[in-house]
Amino acid sequence: MSIEIIDAKRAAQRKRQIGQLLKQIHKSYTENRSLKEEFNVILEPYIRQNDEASCAVVERRELREDEDECIAKLKKDDVAAILDIIKKLNPQLEEQNLPLKKLSLKSCTLPLSGESIEQLAQFISSIPSLDSFTLRFIWCGVKMPPRFIFCITKMAPQLRELYLHFALKPDLAEQCISNLAKAIDSCRFLESLNIDGMECEGITNNCLSKLGKMTNKLESLRTFVFKLRSSQYIDEKGIQDFGTEFTKTKQLTHLELSFYYFINTFSKQSMISLGKAICQQTELQSLVLDFSWCSDIVDEAAQIIISQIMDINDLRSLNINFSGSTRITDLTLQYIGQALKSNDQISKLFLYFGNCESFTDQGLFTLSKYLAKCTNLQELTLDFSSCFSITESGLESICSVIHSLYLLEDLFISTHDFLSNEIQDLINQMQEKLRESALRRKSINLSLFVTNQYSTLLKRKDVLNDLAY
């Protein structure tokens, strides 16, 4: 037995021992607490190399009726309750030589009220062992309190993950984004940054440029998620400027960019700028690009972005969403297929084309020809829902290549609900092809979604048994 295997076994055994110890500490805490609390705390081992410590995840026991999980705002009393939990647990962790090094507030979002953020910042900076902190903010249509920048700066040495959900009005956006950039500029150890502007109607071209520049000095950043809905103040220049500034960030391993309902924005030039920025991420392993309902995207623009991202050598997971892009045609499927041919390292592929009305069977014939050569695929999702020009012939061509994907474990195909009764035969054919290959690979989770009149087909016992093999 090699030394590496022995060390791995010892590490796993030690992790289990620490886990049991943390369970005892947690049990002792829960038995002796006197307050009725709304929050659960989960203690987990946190081991980096030979450094043994603990991680605390604080989450809500139940969401209130008027709250959504992603924006469950903490009140002042809630913050006090969370801090009280950590204060009671931390001495016990220190006593067992398992200092608290990681703290995450899960399903808990702070409003930008000066008092609550200041209270939290003071507490976080008072735990010398803490080197990783996850924080979520909800920022709705109000000016950023001056104390916010100070508090974020105070927490910066420990802050590793930051989630910001904002909804800014036009008259506040420029100044608030500038202040946010100053605050994040101090977070030099930030590893994950998630900016959700889906409810923000006031973002301008200038704001986009500042948001792109925001990550330039974050040398530890590995994950960046940015979501934005269409704004009347953004045009193709804004996208170009975002790409130009974002090009200076080069060390990401996961990138997610979502642009919803943008019109007259994604021209050839803006796609070149965006694609160039993505290509600079030479260590990128996972990429999500969501252009849902960007109805002005044409085949040429799609080709530009697709061809550029396929030059990333380490890319393993690719998720592209062109749903609602009614102007793209079978040519886009051809471009994707050709790009896949040049990058055979991708193991997870997710393609969404719902409501792309110009797709035909010919596009699926072309795509299937290239998919057959993607032998490293482990997960495959294809969404052609409401592509009404696609028939059983197109779907059958996709099914016919499944047997050649030896490593495939998960397959999801979504299609429209106006197929003929021959859909039953198609399902049977697909199952037979999967069975033929099942001896050479792991079992497959297959989901073929049809709706309305054909949903009864999948409810039949014999079909369900067949699908669950």
From TrEMBL:
Name this polypeptide is given: Kinase domain protein
Organism: Tetrahymena thermophila (strain SB210)
One GO-annotated biological process of the protein: SCF-dependent proteasomal ubiquitin-dependent protein catabolic process
InterPro entries referenced in this protein's UniProt entry, alphabetically: Leu-rich_rpt_Cys-con_subtyp, LRR_dom_sf
Gene Ontology cellular-component annotations: SCF ubiquitin ligase complex
